[in-house]
Amino acid sequence: MEAFYAPVTVVIPESLDYETVFDDIFQKATNYIELANVKTSDMGSLFKIKYIVQLNGTMTEKELMDALRTRNGNLEIAISRYVTKKMNYKRRIAMRKINLKTKNSSNV
Q1: How far is the C-alpha of 28 from the C-alpha of 49, rounded, in Å?
Q2: For 89-108, how does the pLDDT look when each residue is reduced to its tens digit (9 = 90+)?
Q3: What is the Cα–Cα distance from 80 to 58, expressed in whole angstroms?
Q4: What are phi and psi of 65, to 5 degrees?
Q5: Phi-psi bin for 29: left (phi > 0), alpha (psi -120 to 50), beta?
Q6: Among 69, 86, 99, 102, which one is most buried in terms of CB atoms within 10 A?
Q7: Residue 52: partners with Cβ closer than 8 Å, 6 or more residues away
């Protein structure tokens, strides 16, 4: 089976520790979790956090969203379309081929 990964974006108040606030939820719901990006918003009173996760099947996307929503005080949450490692690999190869063609045609 292919490994499916989904970007998850969560907004939390600055009073929560963004490094550990969702650890128990992600430990239950995922096989893989990566903190990809943290950004402040709303004059620094909120953190916008982006994770890359691989769900393990113990929770549905809706159950995961509900658990995150409960923890973050019902602020914004987004689970984006799934991507696969294989798809990313194919996309990188295709982009390299395009870049090589562009470089070769400009050198002529």
Answers
A1: 19
A2: 555 555 555 555 555 555 55
A3: 19
A4: -60, -40
A5: alpha
A6: 69
A7: 5, 6, 7, 8, 32, 33, 34, 36
